[in-house]
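Protocol step 4 of 5: obtain the predicted structure for the target chain.
Materials: sequence only (see below). No template structures provided, no constraints applied. The aim of this step is simply to have a reference model before the mutagenesis design in step 5. Sequence pasted as it appears in the construct record:
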Amino acid sequence: MVELLRAELDEGEAESIALAHEVRADVVLLDERDARHAAIRMGLNVLGTVGILLWGKQAGKIMNLRDVLDALRFQGKFRISQRLYEQVLLEAGEYYPAAP
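Step 4 output (structure tokens):
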């Protein structure tokens, strides 16, 4: 399975997906889009960094999700679309659109 996945993914992602499938994991942690799509095609549940952070906010472990996401984006060079950024902040109760 790893060899098949390696045709479209890097080794770490291929190994992660194969292992998650083999052990019938509840969820596999992936951020890269192609890896997420491959895992979903295999019937796996996928969670990424942003999802974990949202869970942390909902569980009361993160007080200000916007600050954490901004640090990831601007200091850590983590790529997240503006649409996903706003969607997650909205779900976390931290999205306040600019007034016209």
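Step 4 remarks: The CA atoms of residues 6 and 68 lie 32 Å apart. The chain has two domains: 2-47, 49-91.
Proceed to step 5.
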